[in-house]
Amino acid sequence: MSGGVDSAVAAARAAEAGHDVTGIHLALSRNPKSYRSGARGCCTIEDANDARRAADVIGIPFYVWDMSEEFHEGVVEDFLSEYAAGRTPNPCLRCNEKIKFAAVLDRGLALGFDAVATGHYANLRTGADGLVEMHRAVDHAKDQSYVLGVLTQDQLAHSLFPLGDSTKPDVRREAERRGLLVADKPDSHDICFVADGDNGGWLDEKLGEQALNRGGDILDHATGEVLGQHAGTHRFTIGQRKGLRIGHPAADGQPRFVLDISPVQGTVTVGSREDLRIDALTGIRPRWCGTVPSLLQGPEVTVQLRAHGAEHRARVVVAGDDVAVELLDPAYGIAPGQAVVIYEGSRVVGSATIATTSRTVSA
């Protein structure tokens, strides 16, 4: 129970369905004030109090579990190291993989519980082969199957998503009917461990002199011309347009975007939006929700490359721990470190971390 409306209603529904429910709030920082301030639905003292009040209204036991060490090692350190290497990680996906459905689930099973229930918007079904399948939520605008694509079959078998068949407005109305004070609480959007939402400033502080000494050139992709200087490659992501601080416009008057980040050379390369287009990528460290595929193709195969991003028709080839994806619909601004989540229709097949992206060069 994060302290937000979704997890509160999920707990209420689970209890109403006859499950023996215990509310758990995760303390992810030993100093909550060092994480995001304000009642935003995650990681603050206010959120812990909101979760406790919701549990009291529902009438279930409530505990706070200290997961700060696991969170720091599995999520925060991963975020730091990925940015330092010029990649763009997804900390919410990593939190699901390392914390909510690993550390929490393991502790819950050891204590005699059967499953972890969360307020994520996704659906679970039993397939014809007897395996548990994860599908997109009914509310596609709130669907969170992308950040759950790292879950294995064993984890899915011990998971519950009570909100998968609902829309967000329905959940808020239900919370109000149930007397839950979080009914109108805003959703959280920023990274929970970045207090003010300033990722670059936070990375400056955490990476210290190592980051501040990484200033270098901003280069033009087409000409190799030095267009300006930057204060650290960690302040940029692939596809970024704002904050480049380039002194003069492009020859065609169009905006420039970040195309490449090289921490070793200390360079950031920029170019046109069309230069961002990719139609192939490779993935590593795959995690499969069920049977490991070897080849996925056909009209129902799609991939999603960002949380709440568009679906792209694709052809996928799997060889051991390597995943090759051919995009039949091109994508723009995709960065190594992000996740590619593979679907067949509404079913999640699995996920991999993007290692490289490429563009087919026309003859």
Write the layout of secondary structure elements.
Blueprint: H1 5-16, E1 23-27, H2 45-58, E2 62-66, H3 68-84, H4 91-110, E3 116-117, E4 123-126, E5 132-135, H5 153-156, E6 159-160, H6 168-177, H7 199-207, H8 209-212, E7 216-220, E8 226-230, E9 257-262, E10 267-271, E11 277-288, E12 295-296, E13 301-304, E14 311-319, E15 322-332, E16 339-344, E17 347-358
Parallel strand pairs: 1-2, 3-6, 7-10
Antiparallel strand pairs: 4-5, 7-8, 9-10, 11-15, 11-17, 12-14, 13-14, 13-16, 14-15, 16-17
Helix pairs in contact: 1-2, 1-6, 3-4
Structure description:
The protein is built from eight helices and 17 strands. It is an alpha+beta fold and 363 residues long. Helix 1 (5-16) packs parallel to helix 2, helix 1 crosses helix 6 (168-177) and helix 3 runs antiparallel to helix 4 (91-110). The protein is globular. The protein starts with a helix and ends in a 5-residue tail after the last strand. The model is unreliable at 34-41 (pLDDT under 50). Residues 280-354 form the tRNA-specific 2-thiouridylase MnmA-like C-terminal domain. It is found in: Cytoplasm. InterPro entries: MnmA-like, MnmA-like_C, MnmA-like_central, MnmA-like_central_sf, Rossmann-like_a/b/a_fold.
